[in-house]
C-alpha cells in the first residue's frame, strides 16, 4: 500500500476561478468552481480585465473552501498544481501567483500544468487511460486532435486554422440572439430542427487533420442576412441543426481520419464543447461502427468546462514524471503542445 | 512585529522585511517588466538572507493601488494569499500614500503623490502629516485630469509638493504649475517598502481577507460602457459558485 498523494490544484485561465483537491490523480475530494459567466454576459463575451478582477475576488475563498471540503490541511499535500497556459494572461496570473504563494509558504513542490492536458484528464474521472491514445479537444478557445503515444507525451496532429468550435457557436449564437456562451442553447435548438440549409463542411475531403470553421460561420451569417433583407423569417431550430450538423460532421470525420492514420487504443473526448449532445451522439455512433475496438472515454458533463479537478488529475501525472516549476513560473498565454508534422510519404 | 511589505504598483518592484521599526532587508528592482517572475523569488531570497521562515511573519503589508492594473494584482494576490494561507494579518496601504511617505514631516505642507494614468489623466491624492507625524489623507485618492488636480491643489490654498514621475504624456499638456506648487525631482518618486511596512504596522488589519481587492480607482471600460447603457442598474453578484 503506497501513500496517498494529494494535489491542491488551481485553474484560472479564462472566466472560472477554481481550486480542487485530488487524491492520487483520480479521486476528487473537492472541486470549488466560481464562474463569472453572469458578469461577462453583460458584455456578450469574456472581457479580460473584468475577468482578472473577478479572479482576485475569489481566489483565496476557493483555496480554503477546497481544503475545508476535502477535510485536509497543507501538511497532507504532496504538491500544488497550476494552469500556466494557454489562456488569458491576466486571468492566468492570478492562479499562478496564488499557487506559487501557497507552494512557497508551505514548502510544497509547484507543478506546472498545460490547461489542455487538464481538459484531457477530465476523462480520467470515468476510466483508466490506455496508451497510445488520441484526444479530440473542443472548447471555446481550442479545437485540436492530440496524439498521446504514451503517458505524459502530447502531440498535436490537427488543429483549427481559424475559429475554435466553441467560438463559432458563440458567433452564430449572437446572430440568432443567443447570449454567450451559446453552445448549450444552440445544441437544444438543434435537437428540435433538421439540417435543411446544408452549410459547407470545411476541409472534409482533405487528407490533413486541421479544422476550419470560418467558412461555415460566414455561410451561416450570409444566410441569415439575406433572409433578413427579404424580410423572411428562418426557422431557428433548423438553422441551429444545420450549423451543428456541419460542425459535428467535420469534427467526427476528421477524428475518424486521424484514427485511420494513428493506431490507438483509446479516444478521449474533452473540452467545453464536448458537453454537446450532437457531438457525443455522433461519435458514439461512428466509433461503434468504424472503431469498435477503440474504447471511447468522454469527459463527464460536469468536468467538460474549466475546473481545477482536471488540472489536479493532469498535475498528478506531471508530479509523477518530475515536472517542477520554480517560483519564477510565469503565465504563458500561448502555451501549446508540440505540433507533430506529418511524415511525407 | 515581523512584517513583509510588497509594492509592485508600477515599474519598480520593492519588497522589504521589517521587524518593529528596523529594516532587516529590502530589494528594489526598477528594470523589471514582469513582476510575476520576480516577486516570489525575491521574497524567498530575502527570507533566506534574514533567516526567517514564511510562518515567522506576523503581518503582510501591501501597496493596494492605484497603479498598473496587473502590477497591483500581482502584489495584492501574493499578499492576500500569503496572509490567508499562513493565517496572518493583512494590511493594505494606498500606493499613493507610499509615495507621499518619501517626504519628511513638514507642518502645513501638502504632499500630492501622482501617477500617470494615460490620456492626460493621473491617479493622485492629497496628503498631509498630522501633529503625530502620521500621514493623513486630505483629499482622497482619485482618477482625474492633471489639470483638475492642479485646480484641486489651488483650492486648498496651501503650499504643496508634487511627488511622482513627470512623464512626457503629462508634460505635453503644457500646463504650468500654480505658484505655491513645486514638483519634486524624480528621485522622490520611488516607493519605499520600508516606510510602507512602518505605516502598515500602525494600521488595523483587514477583517475579511477574501474580500480584499486592489484599489483600481477606475471601472473597466466595458463596465463604464455597460453602466451608461443601463442607468440605475443595481450592483449584484456576478460571480457564483457552481
Ligand atoms: Zn478550457
TrEMBL record, chain A:
Residues 27-312 form the Gcp-like domain. Binds 1 Fe(2+) ion per subunit. InterPro entries: ATPase_NBD, Gcp-like_dom, KAE1/TsaD, Peptidase_M22_CS, TsaD. Substrate binds at residues 137-141, 170, 183, 187, 276. It holds the Pfam family TsaD. GO terms for cellular component: cytoplasm. CDD domains: ASKHA_NBD_TsaD_bac (cd24133). GO terms for molecular function: iron ion binding; tRNA N(6)-L-threonylcarbamoyladenine synthase activity. Fe cation binds at residues 115, 119, 306. Its main location: cytoplasm. PROSITE patterns: GLYCOPROTEASE. It is found in: Cytoplasm. Its EC number is 2.3.1.234. Keywords: Acyltransferase, Cytoplasm, Iron, Metal-binding, Transferase, tRNA processing. It catalyses: L-threonylcarbamoyladenylate + adenosine(37) in tRNA = N(6)-L-threonylcarbamoyladenosine(37) in tRNA + AMP + H(+). Its cofactor is Fe(2+). GO terms for biological process: tRNA threonylcarbamoyladenosine modification. The keyword Disulfide bond does not apply. Required for the formation of a threonylcarbamoyl group on adenosine at position 37 (t(6)A37) in tRNAs that read codons beginning with adenine. Is involved in the transfer of the threonylcarbamoyl moiety of threonylcarbamoyl-AMP (TC-AMP) to the N6 group of A37, together with TsaE and TsaB. TsaD likely plays a direct catalytic role in this reaction. Belongs to the KAE1 / TsaD family. This is tRNA N6-adenosine threonylcarbamoyltransferase. It comes from Limosilactobacillus secaliphilus.
Amino acid at each position: 500500500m503506497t501513500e496517498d498523494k494529494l494535489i491542491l490544484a488551481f485553474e484560472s485561465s479564462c472566466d472560472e476561478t477554481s481550486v480542487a483537491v485530488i487524491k492520487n490523480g483520480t479521486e476528487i475530494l473537492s472541486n470549488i468552481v466560481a464562474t463569472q459567466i453572469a458578469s461577462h454576459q453583460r458584455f456578450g463575451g469574456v472581457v479580460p480585465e473584468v475577468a482578472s478582477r473577478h479572479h482576485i475576488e475569489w481566489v483565496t475563498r476557493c483555496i480554503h473552501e477546497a481544503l475545508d471540503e476535502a477535510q485536509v490541511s497543507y501538511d497532507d499535500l504532496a504538491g500544488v498544481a497550476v494552469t500556466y497556459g494557454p489562456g488569458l494572461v491576466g486571468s492566468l496570473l492570478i492562479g499562478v501567483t496564488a499557487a506559487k504563494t501557497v507552494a512557497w509558504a508551505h514548502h510544497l513542490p509547484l507543478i506546472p500544468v498545460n490547461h489542455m492536458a487538464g481538459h484531457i484528464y477530465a476523462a480520467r474521472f470515468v476510466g483508466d487511460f490506455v496508451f497510445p491514445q488520441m484526444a479530440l479537444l473542443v472548447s471555446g478557445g481550442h479545437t485540436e486532435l492530440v496524439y498521446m503515444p504514451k503517458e505524459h507525451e502530447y502531440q498535436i496532429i490537427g488543429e483549427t486554422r481559424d475559429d475554435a468550435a466553441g467560438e463559432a457557436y458563440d458567433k452564430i449564437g449572437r446572430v440568432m440572439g443567443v447570449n454567450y456562451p451559446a453552445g448549450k442553447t444552440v445544441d437544444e435548438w438543434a435537437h428540435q430542427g433538421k439540417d435543411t440549409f446544408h452549410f459547407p463542411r470545411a476541409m472534409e475531403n482533405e487528407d490533413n487533420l486541421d479544422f476550419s470553421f470560418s467558412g461555415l460561420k460566414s455561410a451561416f451569417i450570409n444566410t441569415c442576412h439575406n433572409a433578413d433583407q427579404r424580410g423572411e423569417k428562418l426557422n431557428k431550430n433548423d438553422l441551429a441543426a444545420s450549423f451543428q450538423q456541419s460542425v459535428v460532421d467535420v469534427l467526427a470525420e476528421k477524428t475518424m481520419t486521424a484514427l485511420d492514420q494513428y493506431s490507438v487504443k483509446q479516444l478521449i473526448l474533452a473540452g467545453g464543447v464536448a458537453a454537446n449532445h450532437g457531438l457525443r451522439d455522433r461519435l458514439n455512433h461512428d466509433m461503434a461502427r468504424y472503431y469498435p475496438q477503440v474504447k471511447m472515454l468522454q469527459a463527464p458533463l460536469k468536468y467538460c468546462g474549466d475546473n481545477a479537478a482536471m488540472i489536479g488529475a493532469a498535475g498528478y501525472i506531471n508530479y509523477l514524471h518530475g515536472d517542477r516549476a520554480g517560483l519564477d513560473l510565469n503565465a504563458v498565454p500561448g502555451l501549446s503542445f508540440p505540433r507533430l508534422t506529418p511524415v511525407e510519404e | 512585529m515581523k512584517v513583509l511589505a510588497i509594492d509592485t504598483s508600477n515599474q519598480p518592484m520593492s519588497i522589504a522585511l521589517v521587524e518593529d521599526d528596523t529594516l532587516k532587508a529590502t530589494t528594489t528592482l526598477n528594470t523589471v517588466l514582469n513582476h510575476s517572475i520576480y516577486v516570489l523569488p525575491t521574497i524567498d531570497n530575502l527570507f533566506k538572507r534574514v533567516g526567517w521562515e514564511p510562518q515567522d511573519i506576523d503581518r503582510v503589508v501591501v501597496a493596494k493601488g492605484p497603479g498598473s492594473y496587473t502590477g497591483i494584482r500581482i502584489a495584492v494576490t501574493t499578499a492576500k494569499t500569503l496572509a490567508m494561507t499562513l493565517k496572518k494579518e493583512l494590511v493594505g496601504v494606498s500606493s499613493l500614500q507610499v509615495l507621499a511617505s518619501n517626504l519628511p514631516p513638514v507642518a502645513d505642507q501638502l504632499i500630492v503623490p501622482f501617477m500617470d494614468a494615460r490620456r492626460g489623466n493621473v491617479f493622485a491624492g492629497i496628503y498631509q502629516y498630522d501633529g503625530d507625524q502620521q500621514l493623513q489623507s486630505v483629499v482622497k485618492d482619485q482618477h482625474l485630469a492633471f489639470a483638475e488636480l492642479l485646480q484641486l491643489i489651488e483650492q486648498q490654498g496651501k503650499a504643496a509638493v508634487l511627488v511622482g514621475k513627470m512623464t512626457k504624456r503629462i508634460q505635453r499638456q503644457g500646463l504650468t504649475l500654480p505658484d505655491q506648487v513645486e514638483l519634486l525631482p524624480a528621485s522622490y518618486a520611488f516607493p519605499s517598502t520600508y516606510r510602507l511596512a512602518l505605516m502598515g504596522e500602525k494600521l488595523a488589519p483587514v477583517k475579511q481577507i477574501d474580500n480584499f481587492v486592489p484599489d483600481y480607482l477606475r471601472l473597466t471600460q466595458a463596465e463604464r460602457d455597460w453602466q451608461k447603457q443601463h442607468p440605475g442598474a443595481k450592483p449584484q453578484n456576478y460571480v457564483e459558485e457552481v
